[in-house]
Specification:
The protein is α/β, with parallel strands linked by helices. The chain folds into two domains: about 230 residues, Glucose-6-phosphate isomerase like protein, domain 1 (Rossmann fold, 3-Layer(aba) Sandwich); about 70 residues, Helicase, Ruva Protein, domain 3 (Orthogonal Bundle), CATH 1.10.8.1080. Helix content is about 50%, strand content about 10%. The chain is built from twelve helices and five strands. β3, α6 and β4 form a beta-alpha-beta unit. The longest helix is centred in the first third of the chain and has 21 residues.
Length: about 325
């Protein structure tokens, strides 16, 4: 245990010099930032933010591999954890929090872990990110196993909390994914999938809540949505696993049913209630004539994939 602690401390010390990192460098395009008009500021930010799209395109292969690995893990009962500090941690928590209403996942299936816990979501706790052992402890606390996937998010690639978490996750046999906005040569990571989102220096030097934060949000959108598509949470481009928990989502569920069928809104409402407010099941019942219990069984046989269940029903 002492050797492990010493190893973590050594690694943390090695990361203290960060001035060479791409995310810490000054951007030549914004050297006169404090002299620009409001319109010039907007135009500059817009030009620089365009780099986020190019960065996603350059990371397309790694993003696709990450989706495939996460899909396999979740299909086998594993969980997805996002781990980060500061802005990176908040983005992970945000993406995790949006999965249950959008895809009707359980809160346990996709989780966000942020250095400093829930308090760090609304109040900066930057010093906490420097402790690798805290990241390792978070992995232990969540009882991460070899079935799970841990995504470490750190714009500058060096956050000790994230590296501690990834190191602990690897020791437990979990699949590990790394997201950073610096080249591998500036901050390496021993992980299964290494995603580099190279957007260049920030308009405001070192403020990674800007381009780095934007491109990270884009990447997390792709990872979670792509995974849920592969898991059969989507039919066509409709969120047929939407959780009907408020008026807006109830209206969305009815519109999905009406758009994909010949039902009136009143008929769709009746069908939705018969299905237990499950859009996917309601569609299956309508298209096959199955009752609720039989439809649930058929969907379960095909791991919730509506298209595959329909193919079997009409074969």
């Amino acid at each position: 245990m002492e050797d492990k602690a010493l190893g973590l401390q050594y690694f943390g010390d090695a990361l203290e010099e960060r001035g060479h990192l791409l995310t810490e460098q000054a951007n030549p395009a914004s050297q006169n930032l404090d002299q620009l008009t409001s319109l010039e500021l907007v135009d500059l930010f817009n030009r620089e933010d365009a780099r986020t799209i190019a960065a996603i395109a350059q990371a397309r292969q790694a993003l696709a591999e990450a989706i495939d690995r996460i899909t396999v893990a979740l299909r086998q009962g594993g969980r997805l954890f996002y781990v980060g500090a500061g802005t990176s941690g908040r983005l992970g928590v945000l993406d995790a929090a949006e999965c249950p209403p959008t895809f009707c996942t359980s809160p346990e299936q996709v989780q966000g872990i942020i250095a400093g816990g829930a308090a760090a979501l609304v109040r900066s706790s930057e010093e906490i990110e420097d402790r690798m052992e805290d990241g390792a402890e978070a992995i232990a606390h969540h009882q991460v196993t070899s079935q799970d996937v841990v995504v470490g998010i750190t714009a500058g690639g060096t956050t000790p909390y994230v590296h501690g978490a990834l190191h602990a996750a690897r020791q437990r046999g979990a699949t590990t994914i790394f997201i950073a906005c610096v080249p591998v040569t500036q901050a390496s990571a021993q992980v299964d999938v290494d995603i580099r989102l190279l957007v260049g220096p920030e308009v405001l030097a070192g403020s990674t809540r800007l381009k780095a934060g934007t491109v990270t949000k884009l990447a997390l959108n792709i990872l979670s949505t792509g995974t849920m598509v592969q898991l059969g949470k989507v039919y066509g481009n409709r969120m047929v696993d939407v959780a009907v928990t408020n008026k807006k989502l109830h209206d969305r569920a009815l519109r999905i049913l009406c758009d994909l069928t010949d039902l009136t809104r009143e008929e769709a409402g009746y069908l939705l209630e018969r299905s237990g407010r499950k859009v996917k099941l309601a569609l299956l019942m309508h298209w096959t004539g199955l009752e609720k219990e039989a439809g649930e069984k058929l969907l379960a046989d095909y791991q919730g994939n509506l298209r595959k269940a329909l193919t079997e029903a009409i074969a």
